[in-house]
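Troubleshooting: if your tokenizer reports a length mismatch, compare your output against this known-good record of 495 residues.
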Amino acid sequence: MSGLSGVLVYPNVKEVAFASLGFLKVFEMFRRKLGLADISYLPQDRTDEVVSKKKGLLLGASSRTEVSSFDVVALSVAYENDFVHIPELLGMAGIPPLASERTDVFPLVVCGGFTMSSNPLPVADFIDAGVIGEAEVVIDRLLGVVDNARVYARSKAELLEEIGGIEGVYVPTLGGKKVRRVWAETESIAAEPLKQEASHFGDMFLVEVGRGCGRGCRFCAAGNLYRPVRMRSGEIVMDRCADHRKVGLVGTAVGDHPDIVPIVEWLEGEGRRVGISSLRADQVSPHVAGLLAACGVRTIAIAPETGSERLRRRIGKGITRKQIFDAVSYLSAAGIRTIKLYFMIGLPGETDKDVEAIVSLVSELGGVRGKSKLSVAVGPFVPKPHTAFQWAAFAERKTLRERYKILREIRRFTGCSLKLASIDEAWTEAILARGDRSLSTALLEAAVTHRPLKTFLKQGRMRDPHEELDTRKPLPWDFIDSGVSKKRLLDEYAS
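Known-good structure output:
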């Protein structure tokens, strides 16, 4: 494919883009397979290196080639709230945002990332194709088909028809054809790219320990969309870390890796610094806490999700009050400076008492935190496709605001901080996550006018996110075979 060119674009700023391990892995695949491969992202202003000085058009960061000149323009979208940046970036590149207005075969606009596996419909009018699942399985065949179309001058309709025959690829012009989510076998998980100094993680080398989580929390889309659980061997993980002084261990369920203790013991013995974002409370022991502290970990998160065990059982979060207290105690005793606690409000079946239980839990944890600080983060629950709670209502904003008032008492506790996520942003996410193709109008208007997306969502026709979905009716994203049966999800929702 030496004649084929491609640019991978992240719909957020440079620091976020270069902190995305999946994005960087796909770029490495592009770099190895294409004659010209580059990377781009959402510029912060017109002085950014990815904006041409004369025309103000979006460029590849390395080649300084206009994005519109590449054969393939691929976007990697991890978060629904970044959907609005897709038509914005295409417009900045001089590419008509609506696929229906792009009659030329090239550039071909392809989208991948977590949101495509969840529900690509809100942005379907902007893309020629979407990858449903993991890139390792699709990328060779997809690029091969595109290269053939370039060499043999195939029409766009012919190209899209052939792309639509690739397992794991969604082509909007082919309608609601069933698409099966694809995933890489453990040995096929792509190797890590070089570390990127521009990322939020700075000089930390990120290593993927595995994919998938077998815990089955009913609210968690990642738990379903990264199935089956695939853990790389401890030897491979340690080999990938060998040449790096500071490493970050990445995965859907890092603490569930069967060799996590030997891996961290080896890293500690080699004098390496380690980053690990979170652990389940039931994975924290005095030994694990001590190892992490010895490897330079100063902050770690656990996610009780709720304050009451009743609600934790309802959402499938199988940790107990005692395990939460033990985890905080062990981490504090080991010298971890900051312990982050993640909670959600607005969950199905939640009452004010459940929210008051969060306040009580944090207050009581103050008695075992020692010198550690407790950093409490709370956000509204957002129902996601392919989960048992995909039918649930997004809580009324008035209710969420009232429950935030209850939580603000936490700010009075010594050694505790409280961060409350934006209700408006969560409301927008809830609409986009379960939206259909009618949302493209609002996304395009927001991108063109640079006005808040919520303004156009309120003006347009959309499904009310505060309403529970009818479990008897088809869902817009049912054309995606996620690998988890709808009956199973319905049974969990009803239980």
